[in-house]
From TrEMBL:
<dbReference type="InterPro" id="IPR011146">
    <property type="entry name" value="HIT-like"/>
</dbReference>
<dbReference type="Pfam" id="PF01230">
    <property type="entry name" value="HIT"/>
</dbReference>
<dbReference type="InterPro" id="IPR001310">
    <property type="entry name" value="Histidine_triad_HIT"/>
</dbReference>
<feature type="active site" description="Tele-AMP-histidine intermediate">
    <location>
        <position position="83"/>
    </location>
</feature>
<dbReference type="InterPro" id="IPR036265">
    <property type="entry name" value="HIT-like_sf"/>
</dbReference>
<dbReference type="GO" id="GO:0009117">
    <property type="term" value="P:nucleotide metabolic process"/>
</dbReference>
<protein>
    <submittedName>
        <fullName>HIT-like protein</fullName>
        <ecNumber>3.-.-.-</ecNumber>
    </submittedName>
</protein>
<keyword id="KW-0378">Hydrolase</keyword>
<feature type="short sequence motif" description="Histidine triad motif">
    <location>
        <begin position="81"/>
        <end position="85"/>
    </location>
</feature>
<feature type="domain" description="HIT">
    <location>
        <begin position="1"/>
        <end position="96"/>
    </location>
</feature>
<dbReference type="GO" id="GO:0016787">
    <property type="term" value="F:hydrolase activity"/>
</dbReference>
Amino acid sequence: MGYIIYQDLETTAFLDRSPVVKGHVLVVPNAHILEKTKCDPQTLGSLVVVVKKVAQCQRAALKASGNLIFNNNVIGQSVAHLHFHVVPRSNHDGYRASSSPSLKYESQQQMQYYREILGASI
């Protein structure tokens, strides 16, 4: 870790070394946890509290209009450790979240299918 902006017993927040926007922060649990599905509810709750603190400080200190908050897991993750990205956003900051076009469901039946399989699994 490098430039730590916040740390407590359960979490650490630090500047991302490859920010998509200056002020981009990563929030991580201090204990090694691979991904959010392996995280206990208390630790996950502590992470979300710190994510909120970071988002609020970005808005105040950097005059950000808003924040982009995201978490990915194994796919595309360069570090095998749970982390949340907190990115300060402003109009014309140059960041594009995705160059992929939005997908559409082919039919109402296809949407119903996904609703049923996901609803049954939750």
